[in-house]
Amino acid sequence: SDGISVGVLIKDFIKIYRSENLSPPRIQYKDFAWWQLHLKQIEKIARQKAFWLNQWLDEIPVLNLPIDFPRPSIQGFAGQTFSFELEAETCALLKSLAREQDVTLYMLLLCTYFTFLSKLAGQEDIVVGTPTAGRQHGDVENIIGMFVNTLALRNFPSRQKTFDYFLREVKIRSIEAFENQDYPFED
Fold first, then answer.
1. Which residues are CB-neighbours of 108 under 8 A, at least 6 positions away?
2. Between 92 and 140, the higher pLDDT residue
């Protein structure tokens, strides 16, 4: 399941604990799965497919980050997590900047991440994967199931662009990607 499903499950357990009645679901995950399978035949999905195919007309870039040891001959997926917290003052400044630029905090941080990766790798065509909740319809808000889809966001940071200009590009490309999030990543 996804994180939203865990929240739904917790809310249901709390209601049961309080001896409250649970409302029967209007739809089930199997209804969503059926809808998704049949959605492929609808014009909306055809437009979304065309959008994503257009994103990948050119060669797909590989991010060549500097490494401190040779890559193994067999690719592995082991990794690590680096956690940190920003100070409240820094968060307030970032939120203020996002409001000034008419972008979400996510878009501002994404733009910063693209810029960081570009400088680190020395590349100007970067792809970053981001998950979406996949719950665009209100009927699936309280359903337990795995609705998550991945969006491969492609942006082109370059030295010729100011940060403000690149931020506007990231905003536009992010909005376009999220508007086309129903097309399954694996397809």
1. 94, 97, 98, 101, 167
2. 92
SS3 75: coil
Report which DSSP code applies to 68: S
| Structure-block tokens of residue 158 | 């370059």
* Mean model confidence pLDDT for the chain: 89
| pTM of this structure | 0.81
Residue 40 phi, psi dihedral angles, 5° rounding: -60, -25
What does the alpha-carbon distance between residue 148 and residue 127 come to, in Å, rounded to a whole number? 19
Q: pLDDT tens across 157-179, in order? A: 999 999 999 999 999 999 999 99
Token output for 62: 């590989």
Q: Return the CA Rg of the chain.
A: 20
pLDDT digits over 27-36, tens only? 887 887 777 7
103-141: b (≥16 Cβ within 10 Å) or e: beeebbebbebbbebbeebebebbbeeeebebbeeeebe
At residue 71, φ and ψ (nearest 5 deg) are -70, 140
Q: How far, CA to CA in Å, does 33 sit from each of 40, 89, 147?
A: 12, 44, 9
Please classify residue 184 by burial: count the beta carbons closer than 10 Å to its beta carbon, then call 0-12 exposed, 13-18 middle and 19+ buried: middle
DSSP 3-state assignment of 110? Answer: helix
Q: Bin 122: left if φ > 0, else alpha if -120 < ψ < 50, else beta.
A: left
Are 171 and 155 in contact by the 8 Å Cβ rule? The answer is no
